[in-house]
Amino acid sequence: MPNDRSPDDTRAWLALLRAPGIGSATARGLAVRAGGAAAALADLERLRAEFALADAALTWLRKPDDARIAADLDWLAAPDHHLVTWTDVDYPPLLREIGAAPAALFVAGDPTLLWLPQIALVGARSATAGGIANARQFARSLAGSGFAITSGLADGIDGAAHAGALDAGGATIAVMGTGPDLVYPRKHRDLAARIAERGALVTEFAPGVEAQAAFFPRRNRIISGLALGTLVVEAGVKSGSLITARLAGEQGREVFALPGSIHNPLARGCHLLIRQGAKLVETADEVAAELAPLAAALGESLRARLAAPDAPVAAEPAPAARDADYRRVLDALGYDPIGVDELAERSALSIGALSSMLLVLELDGEVISVGGGRYSRA
Asked: Are strands 254-257 and 279-280 parallel, antiparallel or unpaired?
């Protein structure tokens, strides 16, 4: 599914993606409003007020660092390296539906795999031997049923999920919290190479961007957003996997969890999800059967796109309706920064729940992180 983006538009997208202070929502909005990234850069004076562009962003967009853009273009010139942008027809359709969709994805491997029906399989980094075995077996079985296995390339459950899909000769997609040319953790460099060869490495971060703690929750909403459903194998009650599961639920996707021993602390996160409404599953067939109708509907969408490759690309999605919890967060926030602990007291929400909600609100441009764990309304 090739795109027809011009070289000038590719350069403009790279400039937008690296502009300081411009998030995904603004980059998407600029490109859609102007009719393309290059058109947006040519019309900055008209758009600056509408999008409240900061001086630092305007300075960069008027004169981007040529060496930095050239390095990005060098990465894209390599075989099987791609940039998939919001205005491309091959932007993955399920990801397009989420409110905080990334403006673009850097892909090493086959970008058409992003249209496959996917199951996100996530869990603890410090997983037990039993958890690793379960993740590998579930991934192997689900890949054999025709699902692509999507995970985060982390230690533990993630790595086992990718390996299980590869063992079955299936497709696997690794969503990274770094640029596409860097592998974290480094021990997974060989695994990443196998994934790039037989699947896809995906990230919203440009080449050369190193891992930061704040990037991994952002990565998680792409993992859940690409997939029809998310399966949590092992997780503690404060695990990042629970953020992925919560994001999946907020995105309208299915959430599954494996039960475990009451004596295993890494089963407690799964048990919490089950109490909150996640589907308890014991076999891969249960997951496959639940998602089969959704996979068939996605297949119809793909066939329609292939039959009409010149069909117009969707514009910005309508903002997702905020549930009562989101309203409580926004009502509790003012324009003066406050810490997460105080926000939890004001909103009567747990810090774990606030973490994923603040991430979504920040990516949607409604909340600003000012550092030190403090937030304010935008």
From this structure: parallel
Q: Which residue has the tokens 């947006």?
A: 40
Token pair of 321 as six digits: 């309706």
The answer to whether 295 and 123 have CB atoms below 8 angstroms apart is: no
Q: Which residues, including other chains, have CB under 8 Å from residue 214's CB and lie 6 or more apart? A: 369
* Beta-bridge partners for 149: 119, 172
* 292-326: burial string, b at 16+ Cβ within 10 Å, e else: eeebeebeeeeeeeeeeeeeeeeeeeeebebeeeb
Q: Over the stretch 299-344, which tens digit does the pLDDT of each residue have? A: 776 666 655 555 555 555 444 445 677 778 888 887 788 888 888 8
Yes or no: say if 16 and 30 are a contact pair by the CB < 8 Å rule.
yes
Higher pLDDT among residues 2 and 174, named by residue? 174
* pTM as predicted: 0.85
Give the pLDDT mean for 165-169.
Answer: 97
Closest to 150 (Cα-Cα) out of 131, 164, 133: 164
Name the fold adopted by 324-377. Answer: Arc Repressor Mutant, subunit A (1.10.10)
Tell me where in the chain the CATH 3.40.50.450 domain(s) lie.
Answer: 111-294
238-258 per-residue burial string, b: 16 or more CB within 10 A, e: under 16: ebbbbbbbbbbbbbebbbbbb
Instruction: Count CA atoms closer than 13 A to 138's CA, side-chain side.
Output: 34
Please list the residue range(s) of the chain that carry CATH number 1.10.10.10: 324-377
The CA-atom distances, in angstroms, between 224 and each of 54, 81, 121, 376 are 31, 23, 9, 26
The hierarchical CATH code for the domain 111-294 is 3.40.50.450
pLDDT tens readout for residues 96-117: 999 889 999 999 999 999 999 9
